[in-house]
Amino acid sequence: MMDPVVFIPGFMSDARAFRHQIEALSLDRPVQVASLAGSDSVRDLASLALHGLPQRCALVGHSLGGMVAMELARLVPERVTRLVLISTDALSELPGVAAARDTMIARARAGRLADAMAEALPSGALAPGAGRAGVLDIVRQMAERAGVDAFHAQSRAMQRRPDQQGTLRRLPVPTLVVCGAHDRLFPARRHEVMAGLLPQGRLVVLEEAGHLPMLEQPAQVTDLLDRVLRA
Fold this sequence. Notes:
Blueprint: E1 5-8, H1 19-25, E2 31-33, H2 42-50, E3 57-62, H3 64-75, E4 80-86, H4 95-109, H5 113-120, H6 132-159, H7 165-170, E5 175-180, H8 188-197, E6 201-206, H9 213-216, H10 218-230
Helix pairs in contact: 1-10, 2-3, 4-5, 4-6
């Protein structure tokens, strides 16, 4: 049997963000979905996820989930067989972005979670086209389910995330870095830097996707994952 795959959803997301990939890949391998609940720290979230982590597995992380995946790879590199990082960042938060998150947290706490989410994930961070509205509707549903406390905690985790460039330089496993060309939150250039740090890194930029390629171009992302997991 193939090694299990552990999906780690991104900011204010859940398993629905990886629905297409989970359905396809679970046909021939065990699949798990990690939670981002329980802490406002990337390092603590990784420690919590470690309790349910298989002895050996592939990690697929998006956005904040990618940051947690990198921390897991730092903690237990011997247990990670493959790593896929999607629409994420190995750098710590820039001061201006961190300050903007304080405003978003205040807005969410004031009963305006939808407005805070629209600022955290603006529509312009997704690829234009007819599919954008449907993706944004899934984002809205996931955010409503997660709630204000999760928005606060996950925003703090993003603000305080550690720099993982050293982790990537030392990572001994095949790693796929995926981003969308239209992603304004974590642009392609940042992903180029990550891939360049990795000893066994490969970068794929999806031209018709933005910050949520798993939902915007689900078949392409599923195919990419299947190939890297079988390699």
